[in-house]
Specification:
The longest helix is centred in the middle third of the chain and has 22 residues. Helix content is about 35%, strand content about 30%. The mean pLDDT is about 90. Strands 1, 2, 3 and 4 form a four-stranded antiparallel β-sheet that branches. By secondary structure, the chain is of the alpha+beta class.
Length: about 120
Amino acid sequence: CFLILIAPTRYGRVDTEIKYNIETEGIRAREIMSGENNTIASDLIFATATVVNKILDDAENDGGPIATYYDDSPVIIQAFNFRCRPPKPGKVCIFIRSIVSVFADRGEDLEEIRNLILSGIEE
């Protein structure tokens, strides 16, 4: 007797790069990435995943493209210091680069999903 389990297969991986700047109260990029005395990286990951899930849910409810974000394919972030212009005493300017991966249903337009995510993030 054999038991065959069929797990859903993920199709159409869509990686979307999101770039933005933040200011901190003296916390540098290295500290953000290490999590040393702060939760900025985990907060950014959580916020990005939450917003992307909302964008995808709204699109599906409006008959738009269908894609899914999975927690086991988490948002990846990188942080880089840059010189604030104009200089701001006590502030550190950080460039954040996030990559979020979602998986489109078969037949969905991958570029349309990427654009949907980017336009939803900009709002």
